[in-house]
Specification:
Blueprint lengths: L1 H26 L1 H5 L7 E2 L16 H27 L6 H34 L6 H5 L1 E3 L2 E2 L10 E2 L3 E2 L12 H8 L6 H26 L7 H22 L5 H27 L4 H46 L1
Antiparallel strand pairs: 1-4, 2-3, 2-5
Helix pairs in contact: 1-4, 3-4, 3-7, 4-7, 4-9, 7-8, 7-9, 8-9
GO molecular function: phosphatidate phosphatase activity
Family: Belongs to the PA-phosphatase related phosphoesterase family.
Subcellular location: Membrane
């Protein structure tokens, strides 16, 4: 068992290193890839003329919905799963931790992957946000570009932003504004929301099947929770269009990105927990071996007893024949 435990701990350490690298890359994408691609614009582009609004779902709320809730579901379902299956072996607590671990690591991997993919898309595409003109106020040589009618119908690539984002006090200026304005595609809110909620939906479905096998009927509670998860993801995605933070196509792309990764990770977790070869089996290996050894010993003793009885019967028969003779 010590050999299996050592291999498991080494694999655990290696997995955490991979996830840590992905998280660092996803959080520092702009440092590795640089600023988003600088794209031009047309002065008459109405899709870039929307007003700047504050976020309906800010970054902190997004982290709670896309990361905190799935994490809570993994922990709670892991605890309830062992309670429902009534596993009272010595390794119950260890089994619970390993069940949570086998779900948590793939989730963290998927979360980091979604962040990295969407940030690479933002930096590579560099699509302008719908509030571009409201925030940027593009000028060329200190002259507002779109005030000149001759610039209409011309693709403008040489410009500078002189506007700001937010109120006068504490406003965000210069390169930060330009990086934010050129990161519309894909929608990070939609990607993370659909990833977290789709993973939660499929994880709850797996947990529901476990409850049914243990004769625990929860009725429509589980479908209701799954519906709420879908509704939350949909609300987050649509709020990005209503707040003029993204074009509708950005939201669609982000939603499909998060949904695809969420389904893939949930499918992997289900197959990984359902399959064999995990440390969960190693916990029970000594007991199985001892049981088999005991059964083998009992069988051997029964065989010896049977052979001894047969020999005694043969000896008694020979003795009787000699007496008759």
């Amino acid at each position: 068992m010590c050999k299996f435990a050592l291999k498991y701990l080494l694999r655990l350490l290696f997995d955490f290193v991979i996830i840590a690298v992905l998280l660092v890359l996803s959080l520092k994408t702009y440092l590795f890839l640089g600023a988003p691609t600088r794209r031009g614009f047309f002065c008459g582009d109405e899709s870039l003329m929307y007003p700047f609004h504050e976020d309906t779902i800010n970054s902190h709320m997004l982290q709670i919905l896309s990361f905190g809730i799935p994490l809570l579901v993994i922990v709670v379902c892991g605890l309830l799963e062992n309670l429902a299956l009534q596993k009272r072996s010595v390794g119950t607590h260890l089994r619970t931790l390993l069940t949570i671990h086998d779900s948590l690591l793939p989730f963290l991997f998927g979360y980091a992957a979604v962040r990295l993919i969407k940030d690479v898309g933002k930096v590579t595409v560099g699509r302008l946000r719908p509030y571009f003109f409201e925030v940027c106020h593009p000028v060329h040589e200190d002259v507002p570009i779109c005030d000149d009618d001759r610039n209409y119908g011309i693709y403008i690539e040489e410009y500078e932003c002189v506007g700001s984002m937010g109120d006068t006090e504490g406003a965000v200026h210069t390169s930060i504004v330009e990086n934010i304005m050129r990161s519309s595609f894909p929608s990070g809110h939609a990607a993370l929301a659909f990833f977290g909620m789709s993973f939660t939906v499929f994880y709850l479905q797996r947990f529901s099947s476990i409850l049914r096998r243990s004769c625990a009927n929860v009725g429509l509670v589980m479908p209701l929770l799954q519906f709420v998860c879908i509704l939350v993801a949909w609300f987050v995605a649509t709020s990005r269009v209503l707040d003029y933070k993204h074009h509708w196509s950005d939201v669609v792309a982000g939603g499909f990105l998060g949904l695809g990764v969420g389904i893939a990770v949930a499918y992997y977790v289900h197959g990984h927990l359902k399959g064999s070869g995990t440390f969960l089996e190693v916990v029970d290996t000594p007991k199985v071996s001892i049981t088999r050894h005991n059964n083998r010993g009992i069988s051997e003793r029964s065989s010896v007893y049977a052979s001894t009885s047969s020999s005694n019967a043969q000896n008694n028969s020979v003795t009787k024949q000699i007496s008759k003779a």
